[in-house]
Amino acid sequence: MDINISEQEDRLVVTFKGNMDNASIREAEQALAPVFQCKDRDFLIDCSELNYISSRGLRLLVNLYKHFRDCGHSAFIRNMNKNVREVLFNSGFLTLYVEE
Amino acid sequence: MAKKSDTLSVRLGVSEEAYPQLYDFLNETARTAKMDDYYARRMRLVIEEAVGNIIGYSGASEMTLVAALSGNRVAIDITDDGLPFDPTAFPEPDMSVPADERAEGGLGIFYMRQMSDRLAYRRDGDKNILTVMLSFEDEE
Fold this sequence. Notes:
- The complex is a heterodimer of chains A (100) and B (140).
- By secondary structure, chain A is α/β, with parallel strands linked by helices.
- Chain A is built from three helices and five strands; from the N terminus they run ββαβαβαβ.
- Chain A has a five-stranded mixed β-sheet.
- Chain A starts with a strand and ends with a strand.
- The model of chain A has no long low-confidence stretch (mean pLDDT 95).
- Chain B has one domain (2-135): Histidine kinase-like ATPase, C-terminal domain (Heat Shock Protein 90).
- In chain B, strands 1-2-3-5-4 form a five-stranded antiparallel β-sheet, with helices on one face.
- The chains are: A alpha/beta (100), B alpha+beta (140).
């Protein structure tokens, strides 16, 4: 999985590309370490190239949400495919993110 | 069509290194079945969660997956030689608790139940056998 981190206007934007599966989750956690240092802005996940997410990937998204919540900021998500949206929605975790 | 009665199988080690081989097996199963991508990803989620539990907690030394295709259904037997574990008897996570306050754990089994047609477990000698039944639509 490829992860791109950028700043757009007043938000930190993370773009996932590929599959957030059990094989790639450790690499993803390492790549996202700098995101957990960000405390001064809102956060957006762009899923336009994310094919698939497992429950371990979902837990990572929950931990990202909690970090920004604890810093007093909002977490946004966009461009989920049907599978990714289903995984977040069915477990209730989509309510954590603002969908745009 | 060839898919109507195909059977595919793979034997996997019980470690994180097994995942790429698992994904290849599931991709081959989806290709053979001419499965629509949406259903292929649902199959992958159910099976990856089951295999993740075996890798994480079972103490097994090996596992075998056999996928039997029949029309627009697939039954996948996952056999391991680990400690007895019946995921069908595992308690559901408490979905009434707000998502960010919910305890971790049980989420994988939640998806296994939710995205399969049926799960069936049996203990046969020193083996766990979990049968996952899924239905799907054809690729367009």
